[in-house]
Write a structure and sequence with these properties.
- Keywords: Signal.
- By secondary structure, this protein is an alpha+beta fold.
- It is 26% helix and 38% strand.
- It is built from 4 helices and 16 strands.
- Strands 1, 2, 3, 4, 5, 6, 7, 8, 9, 10, 11, 12, 15 and 16 form a 14-stranded antiparallel sheet that branches. A two-stranded antiparallel sheet has the order 13-14.
- The radius of gyration is 21 Å and the shape is globular.
């Protein structure tokens, strides 16, 4: 009987602990949404244009530009690859398929090894850049795993820390944010690389996103989004033509 009662008590404590953790994590998510202007404003933002530099870009030169349609998944990329070719690529990040690709103003057939290599480089960098820029919103994705939220002191500032793992393990570690503003102040990935985050910018419609991730380990890992802008409308031709 004593063993049975002990098991029941332990079970109740475990359930209570899980519920408390879930509640704390939901509060953290709400604070992160507050930092970018609120979930409603984010959901009402459809088109986002951003230009990125850094982020260990091995195949694309700095100043790469992406225009995305959040709802449909359509993306327009403009930039230079490592060999200096000017590329315009139209693809869909949801289906992960290339639609059209232009190299130095000339369209290439999509079912070729060269185009597939170009697209692999572009898509890889797009995922890395978008993960940083949209990190506050990705923490709330159903497929994102989060751990127990705890308070930490970093550079004499009290921050809240939440461990996380994004879909497909594309990025994992912990985010540390200010509970008053909801701004992410630091990112530590699973390899221990530390990034100080600042430069939150109003991209339009009252939506704020982090634009600077300064690496404490290597300048090549630092990422800067020199341009970030949101639009409510966009020409369809941007996602179909040169």
């Amino acid at each position: 009987m004593k063993t049975f009662l002990t098991a029941v008590v332990l079970s109740l404590l475990l359930v209570h602990g899980e519920q408390a953790t879930a509640q704390a994590n939901q509060e953290s998510v709400s604070i992160l949404w507050k930092g970018i202007g609120g979930k409603t404003r984010w959901d009402n933002t459809n088109y986002i244009l951003f230009t990125a530099t850094g982020n260990e870009s091995k195949h694309l030169q700095n100043g790469r530009k992406f225009l995305i349609n959040k709802q449909s998944g359509q993306v327009r990329f403009e930039g230079k690859v490592d060999n200096g070719d000017n590329i315009v690529a139209l693809f869909n990040f949801k289906t992960q398929k290339i639609l059209r690709l232009f190299s130095n103003g000339v369209e290439s057939k999509t079912a070729t090894e060269e185009v597939n290599e170009y697209f692999a480089k572009i898509h890889e960098q797009f995922k890395k850049d978008a993960t940083f820029l949209f990190l506050p919103t990705l923490i709330d994705k159903p497929e994102t795993r989060t751990g127990k939220s705890v308070a930490k002191i970093v550079n004499a500032e009290k921050l809240q820390s939440v461990p996380f793992q994004l879909k497909d393990n594309s990025l994992a570690g912990e985010v540390l944010f200010n509970v008053e503003t909801g701004y992410i102040k630091q990112l530590v990935d699973r390899e221990g690389n530390e990034f100080y985050v600042n430069g939150y910018k109003d991209i339009g419609g009252g939506v704020f996103l982090p634009t600077t991730f300064k690496s404490m380990d290597s300048q090549n890992k630092s990422t800067s989004f020199t341009t970030v802008a949101a639009f409510t409308e966009m020409e369809d031709a941007k996602f179909s033509n040169l």
